[in-house]
Design brief:
By secondary structure, this protein is mainly β. It contains no helices and 7 strands.
Length: 107
C-alpha cells in the first residue's frame, strides 16, 4: 500500500513486508554519515544500508520508510518510492538510501 502524508505518520500505520530471509520487521538502523545546515538548507546523508536475501527471497516491496525509532510512536520522517515492486532473490542484495547528495534536503 502506498504511504501518504495524511495516513503515514508513524510506523504502526505502515504495512511491512513479511519478515524472513534477510529482512527483520522494522528494517535496519540507518547510520548518519553527515547532518549539516548551510545557508538555511539542512542536508541528511545516510550510509548505505544493504539487505541480502538468504535462505529464500525477501518479499516484494516498493517503498522504503525512514522513521525515528527513538520516538515514542516511531514517527515517520520520510518514505521513498522506488517506482515499482522489487523482490530480492536468494543470494542477492539491494543497497538502500545510497545518495551522497543527501536523502533529505530541507530549506
Amino acid at each position: 500500500t502506498a504511504p501518504s502524508k495524511a495516513s503515514t505518520g508513524q510506523m504502526s500505520e505502515v504495512t511491512q513486508i513479511t519478515a524472513g530471509n534477510g529482512y527483520s520487521t522494522g528494517g535496519e538502523a540507518a547510520t548518519v554519515s553527515s547532518s549539516t545546515q548551510t545557508s538555511g538548507v539542512y542536508k541528511l546523508v545516510l550510509a548505505t544500508t544493504t539487505f541480502t536475501a538468504s535462505g529464500g527471497s525477501i518479499a516484494e516491496w516498493r517503498y522504503a520508510v525512514l522513521y525515528n525509532d527513538t520516538a515514542g510512536n516511531d514517527e515517520v520522517i520520510a518514505y521513498f518510492d522506488y517506482g515499482e515492486g522489487y523482490t530480492i532473490t536468494d543470494g542477492n542484495n539491494f543497497p538502500f538510501l545510497t545518495n551522497t547528495s543527501g536523502v533529505i534536503q530541507l530549506a
